[in-house]
Amino acid sequence: MASLNDKIKEEVREVIYDFFAEECEVDVAEITDDSNIIGDLEGDSLMFLALIEIFTKKYDQEIDLKTIGKYSIKHPVETIGELIEMQLKIIEYGNKIIELD
């Protein structure tokens, strides 16, 4: 778990935007928080898993994917903004994210 600050929030946003721009071959300027990951960017769930791995390494976390899976079933992610918010919660709460319900 990590304490969130403005620097971390901006890093997460930047990494997610850059990741989807590269993976979906879209100009980063075309991506907004309202961009639908599947409908607008033609992304998929494997990209979400890749991002989790990127951030767990970056913030030296051990995250149980089952816990994230359970949380994401109750809190599905469709847009870039929702993905940013979920990733920030994962960074902040780690495996305790499931206790937020």
Write a brief structural summary.
The chain is built from 4 helices and no strands. By secondary structure, the protein is mainly alpha-helical.
Explain what this protein looks like in three dimensions:
- With 101 residues, the chain is mostly helical.
- It has one domain: ACP-like (Non-ribosomal Peptide Synthetase Peptidyl Carrier Protein, Chain A, Orthogonal Bundle).
- The chain has four helices and no strands.
- It has helices at residues 6-23, 45-58, 65-74, 80-93.
- Helix 1 (6-23) packs across helix 4 (80-93).
- The radius of gyration is 13 Å and the shape is globular.
- It starts with 5 loop residues before the first helix and ends in an 8-residue tail after the last helix.
Task: Kindly report how far apart the N and C termini lie.
Answer: 17 Å
CATH architecture: Orthogonal Bundle
Query: Which regions contain 5 or more consecutive residues with pLDDT less than 50?
Result: none
Number of strands: 0
The largest β sheet comes out as: none
β-sheet strand percentage: under 5%
Order of helices and strands: HHHH
Shape: globular
Summed up, the helix count is 4
Q: Give Rg in angstroms.
A: 13 Å
CATH domain fold name = Non-ribosomal Peptide Synthetase Peptidyl Carrier Protein, Chain A
Count of spatially separate domains? 1
CATH class categorisation? Mainly Alpha
Q: Can you tell me the CATH superfamily?
A: ACP-like
Which helices and strands occur, and which strands form pairs?
Elements: H1 6-23, H2 45-58, H3 65-74, H4 80-93
Entry keywords:
single chain, 101 residues, mainly alpha, Non-ribosomal Peptide Synthetase Peptidyl Carrier Protein, Chain A
